[in-house]
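Researcher: Batch entry, complex prediction.
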Amino acid sequence: MSLLVDNIGELVTNDPAPGDGPLGLVPEAAVVLEAREVVWVGPADAAPAADQRIDAGGGAVLPGFVDSHSHLVFAGDRAAEFAARMAGERYDGGGILTTVAATRAADDEALRATAVRLRAEALRQGTTTIEIKSGYGLTVADEARSLKIAFEVSPESTFLGAHLVPPEYAGRADDYVALVCGEMLAAAEPYARWVDVFCERGAFDADQSRAVLAAGMARGLGARVHANQLSAGPGVRLAVELGAASADHCAHLGEADIEALAGSSTVATLVPGAEFSTRSPYPDARRLLDAGATVALATDCNPGTSYTSSMSLCVALAVREMRMTPAEAVWAATAGGARALRREDVGTLRPGARADLVVLSAPSYVHLAYRPGVPLVRQVIHNGVVA
Ligand SMILES: [Zn+2]
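Model: Structure tokens for the complex:
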């Protein structure tokens, strides 16, 4: 069964071959999908016949968003903490550990229901590929079940046992790291594609982070790092040194960090929803891009510091607050996310790519930033199926 999407006012392919600029723009375009793949891309008046047809109504079409950083396996919410922070009040509700306690207390069904609900919410907003981390269990059993649920929801699942040292290991961080690298990793690994670590003062230092990443890599997992989020630290350089797919957050970078990223295949994944929700300074996307680093945008969807599943919001923030152009932001939210997950089959619309696309009720991708907060995603096709 083939499906023709035509009457596309502006097609973003992220493939410079058929179109214009890095977004590979094709005006007045059509796309043909068959058996979960893109099979044809080009001008609408040259499109081949297909079994079914979708009329894009002159709207823009782009590859489905690739959200390469989320934390969807958790219980509870932290709305009171958010409200207090926005009111400028001190609030010691426990931060991540609040969510750890709620997650440990929740049964599998409750955790699964939340992850499935948020995955569906993201899909409705155009996210067709999503990475999901564990990291609110922090025991062998709770990390294993968190990963299992993440993996049920998305193949891009990440073991983040090294999110924080749990209270029962207070003052014994090295013992906790040994547990993470040993028994916990062994239990989580069957359900994980990636290993991640929160490399930050108060979480894990460079040596501990290196140990966690090396242990995961020795078991065949790809590496990613929560790096330089709250302070300038060793996270970014460690990510580059180990050949990690992505260094995420990057809010506090020095010149050496930027040079390291620019000279590497490690993607700088920026998560402006986190700075928005914590009223913190945004990362310097302009410096990264001008230096030649590859930049991705992701939601960091989590109940504490960025409870949004909207990639459109991230695009708008990147343009307004981080001085990315609309084209750079849309590329980063699609092709950039795919690079951060080392995927070549998503984040692009070229023959052979996965049939994941978004139809906007707007004539241009620019409207994603130009019309912030407006639900412009009219239709989502995921794996060749209308979602
Ligand atoms: Zn995160």
